[in-house]
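Discussion board: Methods & Data

I've been asked by a reviewer to show the raw model output for two of the constructs in my manuscript, not just the figures. I'm not sure how much to include, so I'm pasting the format here to get opinions. Each protein appears as its amino acid sequence followed by a line of discrete structure tokens. Is this the kind of thing reviewers expect to see in a supplement, or should I convert it first? Here is construct A:
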Amino acid sequence: MKKYLTFVALSLCFIGSAQNINDVLRYSNENLQGTARFQAMGGAFGALGGDLSSLNINPAGSAVFNNSLITLSGSYYSRDNDASYFGTLNNTSFNDTDLNQIGGAFVFKTLDDDADWKKFTLAFNYDVTQNFENRILASGQSTEGVDNYFLNFAQGIPFNSILLQEGEFIEDAYLDIGANQGFASQQAFLGYYGRLIDPVGDDDSTTDYVSNATYSSVNQQFSRTTAGYNSKFTLNAASQYRDILYIGGSLNFHSIFYDRLDQLRERGYDADSEIQNTTFDNFLRTEGNGFSFSVGAIAKLNDYVRLGGSYQSPIWYRLTDDFSQRISSDLADDDIGFIDFNIINLFDVYRIKTPSKLTGSMAIIFGKNGLLSFDYGYQDFSQAELRPTNDVSFQTVNAQISNELAAVSTFRLGGEYRIKQISLRGGYRFEQSPYANGNTIDDLTGFSAGIGYNFGGSRLDFGINRTEQDINESIFDTGVTTPIMINRILTNATLSYTLNF
């Protein structure tokens, strides 16, 4: 009877197609999340403080609190994607709700009014910095069939090294080849037994392969569905020196859960093609955690002007991936269905170091009437790294990061106008592309607005934040590389409740 594997744990040496520049960028970016007030003002809190999400910008911000408090926030996310692929446009939308922030601060005031250090604050905060829930659809008449993906991996690999051994199950061979020969050989194996490709000639030692599909163009339908989150839990301490200086530091503990399902269907080959239908699906799951720290200060120059500065360390992530595939075609081996999402390849543990970030801030306070705030952030993405750096494939990716990514400037502007218990807010955000060419990922722009009502002992805030960005995503790193051009709009509507003690 055929053996069926539900789970196989193997350490893979995924040569040439494991972690890449996209993984580094995915976990290096933090989207504007947090409390409703923070989002409504564009996240421009580096010189303001007084909000739990401001700890993400400047850890000195908790020393601005005059009393202890707790804040809870929930968000409604709406994503709208326009994906253009070979001239065909598809629109998808995705909605989600989440409890995205909860935190508290405990303020300890000095009993001696003449003391230089006026108060000491301990704070904690949980923020969802990235919500990965999303889906894109793309379709079009492509000149790059999926056979090219398998051919690019197979060329140069001896045919006899990817053949089933006598009595060997196909799923065992798939995993064994991946573990011992690498990702390229594993994909060549999958392409051959999926019958997308064949060796040239009858010599089992040949290293040349040809496609079984013939076409000038082929109809492709592709979907990418992602799920998960990147969250941060912050432990913070800060203090106020006289009436002129606030200083603080934070320890940040990051958690990642990410799922990605890619599904590709091909139809419309030439009438005489041996292949008429192909499906090829890939599933990736990433889990892990990370650590970072931050320090900062806010200087109160006078009753109207505050200056802020902060340093956010790199985030040191420790991650694991598992990966599974399935393929079918008109000519596929009868047992190909035993290679499915239950047959799981496990990567070795790897690490990502994101770039550090510097932020300079300025705020103008108009007494009790309102305020204006501006933040400038600088982050050099070319300094990001996959580790261990002595890994040959990681060295290739790190060289690509160094050559293709660049320093990013971020501008955030926020304002608040108060009418008795009511606060009206607005904000603007601009973030440069992390790519030196500015094309693979375009600049990000965002606008926000909000309103708050102060009940005295508590406060209710609402904020809405909209960002837009153009992104080019390829289906694969090789073979099918014409990018899908995506216009991505993300809208967050957040409601926060703050209880003062």
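Construct B, same format:
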Amino acid sequence: MNADDRKGLAGAAHVATRLPAQDLDRARRFYSERLGLEPVDERPGGLLYRCGDTEFALFRSTGASPGTFTQMAWTVEDIETVVSELGRRGVVFEEVDVPGFRTRGGIAEVEGNYPSTGARGERGAWFRDSEGNLLGIGQPVV
């Protein structure tokens, strides 16, 4: 990699998601009790989590998420098992029934989603955290 390749975001070490939280204590409980995640670092204004080789942070915010789009998602190998386990922990999955898009048991079949992954589609499920952030789970369909 030459010096020109490192200019801008292309040379960034990694990408990390930041999610707003009006109540960090409430958010911490949700991520721990419902998702089984514990922060790897915490500061007065935020919590840092790691999943595999990626990370995301919750930061104290007076604003609220609109929750109208997926703000962060995990890729899993067995979405049915993950949805079942999270449901057992009290996570409520979104149910959608609109033309061309329907969930069954919280899981939707999405044709042709994310072609860059080499998959022909994806199975997806969505839920909201304690702060109203819309989060997703996806399993590529190969």
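Answer (T.O., handling editor elsewhere):
This is acceptable in a supplement if you add a one-line summary per construct. For B, something like: Strands lie at 17-21, 41-43, 46-51, 54-60, 72-75, 97-98, 101-104, 107-111, 121-128, 134-141.
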